[in-house]
Amino acid sequence: MRKLITKLAIGVVMVSLSNNFKLKALESDKDQQVIWSADGNSAMRITEDRRILEMSNNVIVNQGTLEIRGDRAIFEYEASTNVLKQVQVFGQPVRYQQQLDGDESSVSGVSDSLILSINDFDETILELIGNAQIESPSSTIKCNSIIYLVNRDLIREAAGPCEGALGAQQN
Which of 167, 118, 171 is nearest to 141 (CA)? Predict the structure, then answer.
C-alpha cells in the first residue's frame, strides 16, 4: 500500500511539474553544433560503427545555451557520418543548465552522471542518473534518476524516491 501511495504521489508531482513548466528550452539550441573542451587527456577509437572520444578533467559540453560540466565524458559518433549519437558525462557532480524560451530564466540540474542523446524525433533527451535534481523558475524535483525531454521541458520519467516543490522559488 505504501509503494502505491508513493508511486501515485510521484505521478502527481511529475504531471504537476510538466504542467507548471510552461516555458520550453531555447528552441534554437537543438539546431546548434555540440562543442566541447577539456583540460585533461583525450583518446579516440573506432568500435564497430561508432567513433568513441573520451576526455577528462574539467569537461564542458555546449549546444547553444545548453551547458554540461563534469569530470569525464564519453562521446559516441556514428563513424560513417560523424553524427553525434550520445554523450555520457560523469562527475562529482555533473552540472547542467540551459536558458528557457520566452525570458532570461533557466533550468538547471545536477546528478552523478548524465547522458545526452537525440531520439528518432530529433528531440534532445537528458538522463540524470544518481542524486538527480532539476530546478526551474517554478519547480524543483529530486529523485534517484530523471529522464528529461529538453525541447519540451518535460520530465518523462523519474525513479524514486523523489521529492519536489511546486510554485515560485524563494531566493
Answer: 167
CATH assignment of 2-165, among 2.160.20.10, 2.60.450.10, 3.30.40.10, 3.40.50.12500: 2.60.450.10
Cβ–Cβ < 8 Å for 75, 87: yes
List of long-range contacts for 17-20, beta carbons under 8 Å, 24+ apart: 17/139, 17/141, 17/155, 17/164, 17/166, 18/153, 18/154, 18/155, 20/136, 20/138, 20/139, 20/166
Q: What is the pLDDT of residues 116-129, one digit of tens each?
A: 998 877 788 999 99
Task: Indicate the range of 118-122, 129-133, 157-161, 167-171 predicted with least confidence.
Answer: 167-171
Q: What's the whole-model pTM score?
A: 0.77
SS (H, E, C) 95-133: EEEEEECCCCCEEEEEEEEEEEEECCCCCEEEEEEEEEE
Nearest to 89 by CA among 109, 74, 107, 111: 74
